[in-house]
Automatic annotation (TrEMBL):
<dbReference type="GO" id="GO:0003941">
    <property type="term" value="F:L-serine ammonia-lyase activity"/>
</dbReference>
<dbReference type="GO" id="GO:0030170">
    <property type="term" value="F:pyridoxal phosphate binding"/>
</dbReference>
<dbReference type="GO" id="GO:0009097">
    <property type="term" value="P:isoleucine biosynthetic process"/>
</dbReference>
<feature type="domain" description="Tryptophan synthase beta chain-like PALP">
    <location>
        <begin position="20"/>
        <end position="308"/>
    </location>
</feature>
<dbReference type="Pfam" id="PF00291">
    <property type="entry name" value="PALP"/>
</dbReference>
<dbReference type="InterPro" id="IPR001926">
    <property type="entry name" value="TrpB-like_PALP"/>
</dbReference>
<comment type="similarity">
    <text>Belongs to the serine/threonine dehydratase family.</text>
</comment>
<dbReference type="GO" id="GO:0006565">
    <property type="term" value="P:L-serine catabolic process"/>
</dbReference>
<protein>
    <recommendedName>
        <fullName>threonine ammonia-lyase</fullName>
        <ecNumber>4.3.1.19</ecNumber>
    </recommendedName>
</protein>
<keyword id="KW-0663">Pyridoxal phosphate</keyword>
<dbReference type="InterPro" id="IPR036052">
    <property type="entry name" value="TrpB-like_PALP_sf"/>
</dbReference>
<dbReference type="InterPro" id="IPR000634">
    <property type="entry name" value="Ser/Thr_deHydtase_PyrdxlP-BS"/>
</dbReference>
<comment type="function">
    <text>Catalyzes the anaerobic formation of alpha-ketobutyrate and ammonia from threonine in a two-step reaction. The first step involved a dehydration of threonine and a production of enamine intermediates (aminocrotonate), which tautomerizes to its imine form (iminobutyrate). Both intermediates are unstable and short-lived. The second step is the nonenzymatic hydrolysis of the enamine/imine intermediates to form 2-ketobutyrate and free ammonia. In the low water environment of the cell, the second step is accelerated by RidA.</text>
</comment>
<dbReference type="GO" id="GO:0006567">
    <property type="term" value="P:L-threonine catabolic process"/>
</dbReference>
<dbReference type="InterPro" id="IPR050147">
    <property type="entry name" value="Ser/Thr_Dehydratase"/>
</dbReference>
<keyword id="KW-0456">Lyase</keyword>
<dbReference type="GO" id="GO:0004794">
    <property type="term" value="F:threonine deaminase activity"/>
</dbReference>
Amino acid sequence: MDDFSVSLRDVWRAKKRIAGIINQTPLIYSEPLSQCTEANIYLKLEQSHPTGAFKLRGAANKILSLEEEAQQKGVTTFSTGNHGIAVAYVAAELGIPCTVCISNRVPAAKVNRLKKLKAVVEKVGSSQDDAADRCRQLEKEKGMTVIKPFDDKEVIAGQGTIGLEIIEQCPDIDEVIIPLSGGGLLSGIAFVMKSIDPSTRITGVTMKKSSVMLESLGHGRPVRLEEEDTLADSLLGGIGLDNHYTFSLTKKYMDEGVRVEEKVIENGLLFLMEHHKMIVEGAAAIGVGHALVHKGQLQKNTAIIVTGNNIDHEVITGLLRQS
Ligand SMILES: *Cc1c(COP(=O)(O)O)cnc(C)c1O
């Protein structure tokens, strides 16, 4: 694994660095899912962070790794929500300036949370790429550091701490099902799991609409796709045409990439509500939805990453009315 600039040592460093901000999240055995799938299914509850999503890990590790002077000039980010919230949260904790640039597609609940965290919020364009351009401008003009949502060594190492926790909490895990967008989450966890045991199966799951990473892997290089509305809105966004890390890491460590229909995501959400009394967002339920339609095909001890809970109330009521 020497062609990869992130090492296990970097992930252990991340674990120590973020310990003051991040608490270990629970890994729970799911009786109802285990019964439905004929495997032992564990849920890694990443929605239990104070920001409601795992992105706090990568953001905390990146910002804490910056020099004091860079921290004081402030941080900026482009994001479909959870990463922006994480960056704003860490900046507020450290008392440093933060500007978040977001596209017009970001749901209202997420915008309000950013404002509560005292971040300056700038709305630009209709895609993550437009927001990214504005960030780079702030970097040039004000010397702020752009905190990327996934394609960054320290961010990947931060997300990789989930892998360390899984191994500690249940050393028997032999498959991990991971929601996939930019691939920072998958790269970090997969790198750790495969370093510890190369036979661990890594499955990435994304929505059929705009699955940019899988489309890119199919073309052998990063491509751009038009964004379409989906229940898994946190999985929207490009992977960057000049992707440095996550494209090659995902290619190297993911055993299978799966695209699922909206209905599968919806069923995952409803299952977690009904059987675990748990409300999460579409992106976070996609792994559960996938498991439900793969009865008998999962490894013996499978962990599913439940990634976040930032869902609009209207979406929940809409779903419950239909079901
Ligand atoms: C960001 C995010 C993902 C995907 O993570 P990537 O590192 O971009 O692949 C999944 N679920 C939620 C809730 C997210 O916020």
